[in-house]
Design goal:
Blueprint (H helix, E strand, L loop, with lengths): L1 H30 L3 H6 L1 H11 L4 H4 L2 H33 L7 H16 L2 H12 L3 H26 L2 H9 L4 H39 L2 H11 L3 H29 L1
Helix pairs in contact: 5-6, 5-8, 5-10, 5-11, 5-12, 6-8, 7-8, 7-10, 8-10, 9-10, 10-11, 10-12, 11-12
Length: about 260
Amino acid sequence: MQADIFLKKKLYSFSFILLLASVTLVSIIITEFNTAKGLSSLPKALQWTFSNFYPNSKSMGKLPDILYKLQQTLLISLAATTVAAVPALLFAISGSSTTQFNWTLSKISRGIATVFRNIDITAWAMILLLSFGQSALTGYFALFFGSFGFLTRAFMETIDEVSSDSVEALRATGAGYFSIIFQAVIPSALPQMISWILFMIETNIRNATLVGILTGTGIGFAFNLYYKSLDYNSASLVVISIIAAIFTIEWVSNYIRRVIL
């Protein structure tokens, strides 16, 4: 019996690999991608990068402006994530099977979370450009809507994983709905929720760079401006600043996770 199960799993794995290889081959044929030429061009690309894409003394003079735009991007990402966490928590409580107080409202909350989660942040930015134009507000709302959808779903799953023992114990004592929420559910789920918020902040900092190119704001706009004007030295300084900021935020996030989890 176990041998048959193992054989089926092996067959499924082989079928999946074969399907993936077939899709890859068909994609190469349709797009007319020359794999050999693409691989052979890598050394030239690396040579050009090391020869042109590095900061020099002239680009270092633009560092204060780059850091200002980076600060703007970081603050927008932080604000969009933390503000989105508040309605996400409310929707998660009403949508979770552990804390729902109305079946219809639970389905509506889950549906809204699914819609917002499955629309990419760049798509939100393009949609909002029609209303707000190229401004920091467009980038903020794009990050806000994307964060809201993701955090609502993540908070729902976190609440669903909370042990029901404390909830049942409070119900047995006649505790009200809000007492159960604030004394059992949220205290148990809060550390994991904070971890999800930190993860979303890290993700939004990366997304904000691309959104900035679309909205003409922040560090993304600075990179786009320098790159299109063929100022590769300044563009490389923007990339280095972004990488340094991402690693710093990730280090801080990991430290906070170690403390609270």
